[in-house]
């Protein structure tokens, strides 16, 4: 029996379903726990159907002047919680001419003065000013404590309370439970902040529900005036119930923050060969990790739909990993039993001789990132006759045709061969198509450009009639992994053939509007010293330089190390999210739009391409394990904090717990175990 450290079964993970079971009475007020017994059901990876909501946007003719002339009727608004977000809102409120008051536990009087805001350290003093609107801008976790500490009796009856929390059912229930029945309530969520709205609020979502508004004309008018603050700034106004909001937000906002934090734990860094998809992941990490963990934890704790999303993400990642390992297991079995060949090692069979030695790949991790050499080619519109090449494309599918279009336009002579008959497509592109590899090779092309899939490359290469080619023919590949084709070429090509390993880090979709500034990575693996052969290699590279590509020269080992941490991570996250069947919602954030775009881009590639990135890059397995570890670590953070909440409900403050421990010691004559199960409450 042959074993390998990569071919292990998934470690069983503790179920999260305990949070869905019935809870003791003292825990029933927590929003994520049902108040009645329920049967735990398995969580399926499925999508949430979009809900119907009422949306409106500002008519261009009604938008406020850039100078923000004072509105017809000003409001006296008291902001409770004058941190970053409270100050962010205050700036616009003041610019619109409203009277703004503020209270916070921290002394922000100097900041308030600069903004034209009246600051009060004592909430009694603030409430005695009789503001028309109380705008709660506290953190999710502190909102209940702050609300219950306000001297509501000092406010006018019918005061309008508004919250701006990222979760809505919790806020709605809290306001209904804590406020006198004659107070008005709006639950709102401006789905933007100081960073995403630093230019303007135009076209950004403002979600709200009129939870309780009195029938009097003045109260209805006050409600509309408050909403008009955001509408006049160009916000997209979306009216929906708090329940609808939280269901959609769990699938968009919470998912976005979760993915961002998982990626942050991986310590992603910019590489010399960033793809557009990887750039979006880096932006996502930067945007989500500016927010505190308390905010993220609040999204989890106070949105009852968030737990299901954690379960679904967990299941999706496991499903993808099992799919990869299932395919890998099939390859190993084929090597063992179908070919009847002895397997030198499972490592060799797994990577098809495409992996560099462990020493070389590990050594890269401890080196500083090499500054890549950038090829300086002439960026000209035409090619002189001396630079024109006869290029034979082997594998004339989508990518082969994509490259052929540019080669033919530049004036090169292009031939093509493929097992599938593409003669019609070739004719339209001005390419000579051959259905027999012998006929193609007898045309003596100067360059053989392999555009096959990763999985079929070895088979195609071995089937080529090398004897019909000119000696010193240049072989070029365009695979997404580089050590595998490098070793394959060196092993199977005659020693007099030249070898150039390349990776155009773009395709028909990302390169449809041109190749300018898109990275083209290459390694001159074996180029003869003859001046003609050197010139031929440079002429081929110049094809991409002329199109404006960013030419990056690096070794195949360096490429695969960077690609495993960027390209493979990008495709993995895209495919995990694809299994969740994410859909656009009426309240998409910019971060969620990034995830949807990522899914769209990666799902367009075949699973064979993704599997090839995993199978033929020696670093991919480590990255997969790191992603798994990062997700498990994030869950541990969430549930450790949750455990603290539950312990507080069980034991109250630490002094009460110590009293219980001391009583137990006296009674039993032994120290009490630190395990929560050992604490007995009479």
UniProtKB/TrEMBL annotation:
Q: Which Gene3D superfamilies match?
A: NAD(P)-binding Rossmann-like Domain (3.40.50.720)
Transmembrane stretches, start-end: none
Assigned keywords, A-Z: Oxidoreductase
> Which GO terms fall under biological process for this protein?
tyrosine biosynthetic process
Q: Name one GO molecular function term.
A: NAD+ binding
One Pfam annotation reads PDH_N
Q: Where would I find the Prephenate/arogenate dehydrogenase domain in this sequence?
A: 75-354, 389-668
Domain of life, per lineage: Eukaryota
Give the signal peptide range. none
Supply the name of the protein. Prephenate/arogenate dehydrogenase domain-containing protein
Species name for this entry? Gossypium darwinii (Darwin's cotton)
């Amino acid at each position: 029996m042959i074993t390998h450290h990569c071919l292990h079964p998934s470690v069983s993970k503790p179920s999260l379903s305990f949070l869905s079971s019935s809870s003791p009475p003292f825990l029933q007020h927590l929003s994520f726990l049902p108040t009645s017994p329920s049967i735990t059901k398995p969580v399926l990876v499925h999508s949430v159907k979009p809900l119907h909501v009422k949306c409106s946007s500002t008519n261009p003719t009604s938008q406020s002047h850039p100078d923000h002339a004072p509105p017809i009727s000003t409001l006296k608004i008291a902001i409770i919680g004058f941190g970053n977000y409270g100050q962010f809102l205050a700036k616009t409120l003041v610019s619109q001419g409203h009277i703004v008051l503020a209270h916070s536990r921290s002394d922000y009087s100097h900041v308030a003065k600069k903004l034209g805001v009246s600051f009060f350290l004592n909430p009694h003093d603030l409430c005695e000013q009789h503001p028309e609107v109380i705008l709660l801008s506290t953190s999710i976790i502190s909102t209940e404590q702050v609300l219950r500490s306000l001297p509501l009796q000092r406010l006018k009856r019918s005061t309008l309370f508004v919250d701006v929390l990222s979760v809505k059912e919790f806020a709605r229930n809290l306001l209904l439970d804590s406020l006198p029945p004659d107070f008005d309530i709006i639950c709102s969520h401006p789905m933007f902040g100081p960073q995403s709205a630093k230019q303007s609020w135009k076209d950004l979502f403002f979600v709200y529900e009129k939870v309780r508004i009195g029938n009097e004309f003045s109260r209805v008018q006050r409600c509309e005036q408050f909403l008009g603050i955001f509408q006049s700034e160009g916000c997209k106004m979306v009216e929906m119930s708090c329940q609808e909001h939280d269901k959609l937000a769990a699938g968009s906002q919470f998912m976005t923050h979760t993915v961002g934090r998982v990626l942050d734990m991986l310590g992603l860094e910019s590489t010399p060969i960033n793809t557009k998809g990887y750039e979006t992941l880096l932006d996502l990490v930067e945007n989500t990790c500016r927010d505190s963990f308390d905010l993220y934890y609040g999204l989890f704790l106070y949105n009852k739909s968030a737990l299901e999303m954690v379960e679904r993400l967990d299941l999706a990642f496991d499903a993808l990993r099992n799919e990869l390992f299932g395919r890998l297991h099939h390859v190993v079995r084929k090597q063992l039993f179908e070919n009847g060949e002895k397997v030198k090692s499972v490592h060799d069979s797994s990577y098809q001789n495409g992996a560099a030695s462990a020493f070389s790949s590990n050594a890269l991790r401890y080196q500083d990132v090499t500054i890549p050499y950038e090829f300086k080619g002439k960026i000209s519109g035409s090619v002189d006759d001396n630079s024109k090449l006869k290029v034979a494309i082997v594998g004339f599918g989508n990518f082969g045709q994509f490259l052929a279009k540019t080669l033919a336009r530049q004036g090169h002579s292009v031939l093509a061969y493929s097992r599938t008959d593409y003669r019609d497509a070739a004719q339209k592109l001005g390419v000579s198509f051959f259905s027999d590899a012998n006929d193609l090779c007898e045309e003596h092309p100067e360059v053989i450009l392999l555009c096959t899939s990763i999985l079929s490359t070895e088979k195609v290469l071995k089937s080529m009639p090398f004897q019909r080619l000119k000696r010193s023919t240049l072989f070029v590949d365009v695979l997404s992994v580089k050590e595998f084709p490098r070793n394959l070429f060196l092993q199977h090509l005659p020693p007099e053939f030249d070898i150039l390993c390349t990776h155009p880090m773009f395709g028909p979709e990302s390169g449809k509007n041109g190749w300018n500034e898109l990275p083209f990575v290459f390694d001159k693996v074996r180029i003869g010293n003859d001046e003609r052969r050197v010139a031929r290699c440079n002429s081929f590279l110049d094809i991409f330089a002329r199109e404006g590509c960013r030419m990056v020269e690096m070794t195949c080992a360096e490429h695969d190390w960077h690609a495993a941490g960027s390209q493979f991570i990008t495709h993995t996250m895209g495919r995990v999210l694809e299994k969740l069947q994410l859909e656009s919602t009426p309240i998409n954030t910019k971060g969620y739009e990034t995830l949807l775009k990522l899914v769209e881009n990666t799902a367009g590639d075949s699973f064979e391409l993704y599997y090839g990135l995993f199978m033929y890059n020696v670093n991919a397995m480590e990255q997969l394990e790191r992603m798994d570890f990062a997700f498990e670590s994030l869950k541990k953070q969430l549930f450790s904090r949750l455990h603290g909440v539950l312990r507080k409900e069980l034991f109250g403050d630490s002094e009460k717990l110590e009293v219980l421990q001391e009583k137990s010691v006296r009674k039993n004559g032994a120290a009490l175990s630190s395990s929560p199960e050992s604490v007995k409450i009479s």
